[in-house]
Amino acid sequence: MGRRRTVDREQLLDAAEAIIEASGAAGLTIDAVAKAAGITKGGVQYCFGNKDALIDALFERWGAAYDRIFAQVAGPEGNPLDKVRAHVAATRPSDEASAKSASLLAALAQTPEHLASTRAWYRERIAGLDLATDAGRRARLAFLATEGAFMLRFFGFMDIDQAEWDAMLEDVQSLLDGPAGATAPSRPSP
């Protein structure tokens, strides 16, 4: 009788990330993860149940750093402007996880069950902005500019090196802070 192999959830997520990196989101299947990890499909399904749960676990993993920065900047009772500032700050760090999440996000835009939660996440980020004010409109524009730059960079539609990325997000931060000479509310630094 053979020794029972333990299934390591983190190793399966590593395998799933490697598949996305090599083949894009379209290559991510339960079978592909099982083969990459050297286990049966049942072993992958034991950990995640199905592909949707695997995808959710990947987003959870990639979102952890974003969530930490977001919470630090927005604070426990952040107002809508603080939430946009927090989004810009949390999007600023660019790494391999950003490229992977963008790839997966592109694929998920085609699936109704994930599209609904993605729409809700985006809507929540700008909910409560007072669009009757200059500050509210600038915050909405800053949010959209940040997301547009993120997608252009990490979908590979535009080559944006780190220096240009940092400069773009400085411009976005300036937009949030308002016109020169205006006093912006104080905010915690990330």
From TrEMBL:
InterPro entries: Homeodomain-like_sf (IPR009057), HTH-type_TetR-like_transc_reg (IPR050109), HTH_TetR (IPR001647), TetR_CgmR_C (IPR041479). Residues 29-48 bind DNA. Keywords: DNA-binding. Residues 6-66 form the HTH tetR-type domain. GO terms for molecular function: DNA-binding transcription factor activity; transcription cis-regulatory region binding. It holds the Pfam family TetR_C_28. The keyword DNA-binding applies. This is TetR family transcriptional regulator.
